[in-house]
Amino acid sequence: MIEQNITISHETLAIWFVFSGDKMLIPKENSHLLKCRWQNLAFAHAYKQQIVKIGSYKELPCLLVDMGNETIDEEDLALVGLRSVLNECSDTFFGIAARSWQVALFIRTHRFCGQCGSKMQQVDWEMAMQCMRCSHRCYPRISPCIIVAIRNKDKILLAQGKSQQSRNMYSIIAGFVESGETLEQAVHREVFEEVGIKVKNLKYFASQPWPFPHALMMGYLADFDSCDIQVDGKEILRAGWFDISELPNIPPKLSIAGQLIEQTITEIQQSSC
Ligand SMILES: [Zn+2]
Q1: Which domain holds residue 186?
Q2: Handedness of CA 198, 237, 264, 245 (dihedral sign)
Q3: Torsions phi, psi for 259 (to 5 deg)
Q4: Which residues have CB under 8 Å from 231's CB, separation 6+?
Q5: CA distances (Å), 229 to each of 44, 224, 248, in order?
Q6: What stretch of H or E contains 188?
Q7: Could you tell me if 121 and 136 are in contact, meaning their C-beta atoms sit under 8 angstroms apart?
Q8: 178, 102: one domain
Q9: Residue 258: inside a domain, yes or no?
Q10: What is the pLDDT of residues 137-179, one digit of tens each?
Q11: Alpha carbon of 83 to ligand 1 centroid (Å)
């Protein structure tokens, strides 16, 4: 659990999640784990009062140090984007890294009260920022998003968004849930807006926190119902029904998009047996 009243000494051995700008600090050699004692992180010592415990990994505390926009230039360490960590580490480690980044971002963006403009302070019994003047309290932002794999007999719908064009990646349909909407309504609306088709037989699959920057992806499987594909041209540039034996470049299985695609492939294979 997230804790803020923690005692740090020179000897404190931990796995450190140090952020500078939108990058995470990792060792240049071996692994993504920045595992060391606090005394070895001299460049971060000015941030000692702001350390937050995010969780534990391999029986060691995971501690967040957010250095804001301060740049770090250490010979043995490198700054990398969270996405590159995603491709090369375990689920659990990525989960903690993701949580650290979201907490860092939350504290950075809630220094002042949205209601009266006064300075906000971290409360020490839960992860929240509170205005000491008007008592307005904020919690880390979580934005619900739906993501859906759509099956049409033995094919799956894959689409390419603007951001995926440079990597020539295809994925499934996803989008933010709007105020007042159920998850299922969001699925129907997003699919129709982005690719112009109707879906049916929605089945909840699983969820995944997605720290780019603070989404909670809620995954669904669905069947095609009606209408021809018509991309919106804004968010989605191209889309089509793909045969599972001729899939384009798709997201890794660590992401829920990758898992939903895999599940759809499995279901298609089982039904053709
Ligand atoms: Zn206030």
Answers
A1: 143-272
A2: positive
A3: -70, -40
A4: 159, 194, 195, 196, 237, 238, 239
A5: 52, 11, 18
A6: helix 183-195
A7: no
A8: no
A9: yes
A10: 999 999 999 999 999 999 999 999 998 998 899 999 999 999 9
A11: 35
What average pLDDT does this structure show over 244-255? 92
List, as one string, the DSSP characters of 76-119: TEEEEEHHHHHTTS-HHHHHHHHHHHHHHHHHHHTSB-TTT--B
DSSP 196: -
Whose tokens are 């695609």? That residue is 261
CB atoms within 10 A of CB 62: 22
Tell me how far the alpha carbon of residue 64 lies from the centroid of ligand 1, in angstroms. Answer: 26
- The Cα 196–Cα 232 span in angstroms is 8
Whichever domain contains 220, its CATH number is: 3.90.79.10
Query: Does residue 154 share a domain with residue 87?
Result: no
Ligand 1 centroid to 114 CA: how many Å? 7
Give, rounded to a whole angstrom, the gap between the first and last alpha carbons of the chain.
46
Secondary structure class of 70 (helix, strand, coil): coil
Q: Which amino acid is at 56?
A: S
CA of 102 to the centre of ligand 1 (A): 22
Tell me, what amino acid is at 250?
I
Q: What is the pLDDT of residues 94-117, one digit of tens each?
A: 888 888 999 999 999 999 999 999
